[in-house]
Amino acid sequence: MAGFSKNIDKNSIPSAPTSEMELLGTTSLLNYHLDNGKVVSYDEMKLKYYLDKDKVITYENEDKLKGAVMLDDVLLRVDEVPLIKLYKKFDTPPAENMYLKVPCIPKNNPWHFNCKNSMRREIRNLTEIKHPNIPKLYGYRELDGYILGLYIDKYDITLEDLLESKVDFDRHKFFAKLCEIVKSIHKQGYVHADMHDLNIMVKKENLDEPFLIDFDSAEKIGTETGRQRKYVFEFRDKVFNEDIDNYSLALLKKRLEIEDDKIEATPVIATPDE
């Protein structure tokens, strides 16, 4: 989470984590740079989230304070999400292959990302969309009546790190499997709407098999984007459809340096805010 709640005095927040804070998790986050309201570039931030009583504090590289938010500003209450009652409540990860996913807020985002609705979507989507290569939702952690985070499957390496490592893997097999995952999601009436190198992962024991993560952006096919301001300018009046994911697949095909498997798609930039 990056940014500060209005009622938090920035000077009262420690510049580095203290021993009293609990590490909730880590994430890689895209920080967008804008020109006249359009994304012109972005960079990646490595962030760590810490729980400090009634707020969550974010640091970059352990010693750079990025934000502090009150729980009520970013977390849903358990009684606000009927679907969460389908799952168990855990105080710690129920197994080693699971981790706690906590909500996050991009530092600079043209879509005014809404943390609570992000969590609400993720719960809905992981409940309704089924595939062995997407995370399974096992339960949640509760804090003072709030959903602090979701316990889901943990994977080892992002596609970005895999490509940068120069390790050999079967790129054609990898891409074919990714297309099959996306096709299954579409058949279930959804689009992922946020496919990129950081949201595709693998397990160490099989680098040829991708797993698609981060479903807080996924939406039902046919949902209007204009009402929710999920697009920048020219895409604002469109609806969620398969072209969004197909365009992402086309970009990933280039990234993987694959020449076959032609994909026709319309360029779309998508990320939800509400």
From TrEMBL:
Superkingdom of the source species: Eukaryota
GO biological process: one example: mitotic DNA damage checkpoint signaling
A GO MF term: protein serine/threonine kinase activity
Annotated ranges, domain Protein kinase: 60-274
Gene3D superfamilies, per the entry: Transferase(Phosphotransferase) domain 1
Gene Ontology cellular component terms for the protein in this record: nucleus
Protein name (record): Protein kinase domain-containing protein
UniProt lineage: Eukaryota, Fungi, Fungi incertae sedis, Zoopagomycota, Kickxellomycotina
